[in-house]
């Protein structure tokens, strides 16, 4: 059987471990795959369009890039159970005197990397929808760690959180999962900060297939993937590292806010010069 080539971005060294386990699982299931690694998401989307790979494990922004560059013809696959219904919080200090989004006018707001959907693009669109215009009504302080990785790391978000603690910014954005993790490990003190507002729900990562990939082949990949079982110790290690308990059917309705953000900022034209 021809091996399905699947792209994955190395946003962390654990990625190669994760996909080594997935490859072995697929081999054992009689549906061999080959993982092709990329340094960033643009390279991976380029690889998908150039048929270096059949399927890409895409960030939400890479999904949008693939969707736009294939005129909506890219195939949509599975996502993790944790990819659905995420939200980002804007956090301020309790004693800041900031009690509404309108109080942020003229203030400095911390964001993650330039290409982070959760800590910059969707938040900027949320502020826009609530009457605060980018480049006019507030000062952006961006923490550009891991540019090209689409915020798939805590780097810029975490630095911005520390900037809030240190008084360098008046507010900062972070994914709900990161907020909860940082409260749990003591990075953030719930007695010192508060959530000022939050975005509408959005979705995160999803598999994208090349438009010309045989749909039955793609669906077989999804079928095998969904056999992974969190209760199986051999699978649990990988699933814990990848942050899921179950693979579920993908959906694209959760990318609406990111699509709006790209249109508002003309992001891809500015970022990729396209």
In a few lines, what is going on in this structure?
The chain has helices at residues 14-28, 41-49, 60-69, 117-129, 155-165, 176-184, 215-225, 233-242, 256-265, 267-272; strands at residues 4-9, 33-38, 55-58, 75-76, 78-80, 88-93, 108-111, 139-142, 171-175, 193-198, 206-209, 247-249.
Pick out the low-confidence regions. none
Number of helices: 10
Structural class: alpha/beta
Secondary structure: number of strands:
12
**CATH architecture tag of the largest domain:** 3-Layer(aba) Sandwich
Into which percentage range does the β-strand content fall? 15-25%
Measured between the Cα atoms of the first and last residue, the distance is 38 Å
Shape: globular
> How much helix is in the residues?
25-40%
CATH superfamily of the largest domain: Periplasmic binding protein-like II
Please, how many domains? 2
Strand order of the largest sheet: 2-1-3-11-4
Instruction: Describe the sheet with the most strands.
Output: 5 strands, mixed
Determine the mean pLDDT. Answer: 96
Give the SSE string.
Answer: EHEHEHEEEEHEHEHEEHHEHH
CATH class of the largest domain: Alpha Beta
User: What is the fold named in CATH at topology level of the largest domain?
Assistant: D-Maltodextrin-Binding Protein, domain 2
> What would you report as the Rg, rounded to the nearest angstrom?
19 Å
Protein name: Phosphonate ABC transporter substrate-binding protein
Pfam family, one: Phosphonate-bd
């Amino acid at each position: 059987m021809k091996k399905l080539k699947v792209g994955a971005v190395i946003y962390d060294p654990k990625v190669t471990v994760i996909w080594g386990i997935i490859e072995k699982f697929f081999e054992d299931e009689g549906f061999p795959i080959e993982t092709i690694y990329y340094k960033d998401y643009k390279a991976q989307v380029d690889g998908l369009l150039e048929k270096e790979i059949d399927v890409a494990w895409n960030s939400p922004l890479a999904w949008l890039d693939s969707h736009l560059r294939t005129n909506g013809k890219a195939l949509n696959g599975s996502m993790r159970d944790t990819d659905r219904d995420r939200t980002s919080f804007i956090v301020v200090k309790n004693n800041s005197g900031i009690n509404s989004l309108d109080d942020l006018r003229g203030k400095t707001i911390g964001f993650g990397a330039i290409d982070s959907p959760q800590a910059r693009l969707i938040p900027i669109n949320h502020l826009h929808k609530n009457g605060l215009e980018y480049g006019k009504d507030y000062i952006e302080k961006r923490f550009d760690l891991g540019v090209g990785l689409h915020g798939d790391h805590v780097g810029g978000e975490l630095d911005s959180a520390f900037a809030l603690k240190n008084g360098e910014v008046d507010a900062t954005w972070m994914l709900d999962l990161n907020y909860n993790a940082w409260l749990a490990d003591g990075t953030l003190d719930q007695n010192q900060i508060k959530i000022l507002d939050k975005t509408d729900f959005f979705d995160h990562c999803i598999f994208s297939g090349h438009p010309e990939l045989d749909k039955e082949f793609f669906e077989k990949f999804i079928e095998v993937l969904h056999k992974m079982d969190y209760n199986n110790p051999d699978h649990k290690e990988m699933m814990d590292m990848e942050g899921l308990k179950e693979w579920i059917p993908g959906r694209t309705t959760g990318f609406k806010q990111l699509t709006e953000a790209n249109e508002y900022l003309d992001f891809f034209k500015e970022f990729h010069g396209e």
